Amino acid sequence: LYTTSQNNRVAKYNYDHDTHENVVVDYVNLNVPRDLAFINNRLFAVSNDFGNGVDVYDIDSSYIGRLFDVARPQGILMLPSGDLAVASGGDNCVYVLDISNALQVGGDGIWTITPLSEDGIFKSTTISNPNYMTFGSDENEVLVTTGDRTVERRCISTSCSAGRNVRMLSSFDSNTNLRGIASVPSIGAYVVV
Questions:
Q1: pTM for the whole thing?
Q2: Cα 15 from chain centre
């Protein structure tokens, strides 16, 4: 699946047949979707940039609801812990959301969202113009690309040493806006585009 902000949709690409199929076309709730992350095998969360929030959809195109209000969400990442990380371009930080009790399915098969408690939200130290994220060296950190042409490492738990919040890479090309990042654990490297 991938998001496309030009026409507020989430689409599926079939590599075997080289086809694209709309999964979600939502002109009511979506306003410039940036990224998505699967929560489980049925639900995925979408960072809704101009919609200022994280919204949840079912794979069958059903809108479940708003999970989290956040200013200008960019990258979104499901962590191995089951928490959801969201890079906020408006708040200049990464939020980590404990969503373990946020989503329930009723006996009728309909999903509902319970508001997150303040205790279930962690906020990283400031990061200027965050874009997209990948996993860091362990479950306590993420690497974030920025609109300032840097890759920043940020602690995402209280058990992480603040000394680990450092700049990892800077690009001196003024025409470069670092966007995507992916970890390649087998060789201990990261790919940045």
A1: 0.84
A2: 24
Q: What is the mean pLDDT of each run of 10 residues along the chain (193 residues)?
A: 73 78 76 90 90 90 89 94 94 94 85 87 92 86 89 85 76 68 74 74
CA-based nearest residue to 174, from 192, 152, 147: 147
* Amino acid identity for residue 133 in this structure: M
Burial per residue of 141-161, b for 16 or more beta-carbon CB atoms within 10 angstroms, e otherwise: bbbbbbebbbbbbbbbeeebe
Q: What is the 3-state secondary structure (H, E, C) of the chain?
A: CEEEHHHCEEEEEECCCCEEEEEEECCCCCCCEEEEEECCCCEEEEEECCCCEEEEEECCCCEEEEEEECCCEEEEEECCCCCEEEEECCCCEEEEECCCCCEEECCCCCEEECCCCHHHEEECCCCCCEEEEEECCCCCEEEEEECCCEEEEEECCCCCCHHHCCEEEECCCCCCCCCCEEEECCCCEEEEC
**Spatial distance between the Cα atoms of 46 and 75, rounded to a whole number of angstroms:** 9
How far apart are alpha carbons 54 and 46 in whole angstroms? 6
What is the pLDDT at residue 176? 65
The pLDDT, as a whole number, for residue 96 is 94
